[in-house]
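ok trying this again, last paste got cut off
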Amino acid sequence: MKYIAIDDEPMALDIITDYASKVSFLEKSGTFRDAISALNYLQQNHVDLMFLDINMPDLNGIQMLKTLQYPPLVIFTTAYSEYAIEGYQFHAIDYLLKPIELNNFLIAVNHAFEQFQLKNNKKKTDNNKVKKNTQSEDFIWVKSGTEYFNVKLEDILFIKSEGNYIEFHLVNKRIVALDSLNNLIQTLPEGLFVRTHKSYIISIKQISSYERHQVKIKNENIPVGSLYRESFLNTIK
């Protein structure tokens, strides 16, 4: 499980990182001293678990969580017990009071891992259903503002992430939707679309040429990031 920790106290981050290093299924993706930096990271990166302090300057943990349309699993870490009821309204995995003890930390992350496995098993089941239906379903519904657009898969050139929004670049128009590439890639048919970059998903059939570092679709040169290059090349081959 990839995790991030957000806390304005350096010592609290050190404790979480130290405890997490003792757990085989936890992999650190980053630590942040403020909620804004963490939000910017989450716009472009997927994580499975978030250790989240509540009482922080500018934007507290509860306020940050409200801005996320698809938040990861959350374990609250705070010195203030009065936030507990509000915290659990967000279906948090656990609520750890500082100073955090190792045994309580282990209980919380084990519970998180159970939820993570359940979520992944459900996702695999859902993906199998999508794969079985790809021959009969050749479109997706895309919500833009208050409208829903019937978008044919064959009309999609590529999809680009722009902050909290994604842009569908189609053969004859462009549609902007409030979503993320991390969520979208789970619903698109496997083998027809591939992610080439943290900001791009492309239609394989629309590629006119490609190199290791970029692909060309129509008149657009789309980057192939190093993290996605091997997967992209394997898919193309």
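PB: full thing came through this time. The chain has a mean pLDDT of 86.
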